[in-house]
Amino acid sequence: MHVHGNLSATIGSWQTQVLFAKSPFFIGVGNNDVHFFALFRAKLDPDQYIVSLLETYNATLQTLYNLGVRKFGIIGVPYIGCSPLMRVTILGGNCSKTGNDLAQQLNSGIERLLWEMARRSKGMIYSFGNTYDILVDLYETPERFNITNVRDACCGLGRFNAMTNCHPLAVLCRNRDEYLFWDVSHPSQYAVQVMVESIAFGGPRLARPINWARLASL
Question: Which of 152, 178, 182 is nearest to 166 (CA)?
Answer without folding.
Answer: 182
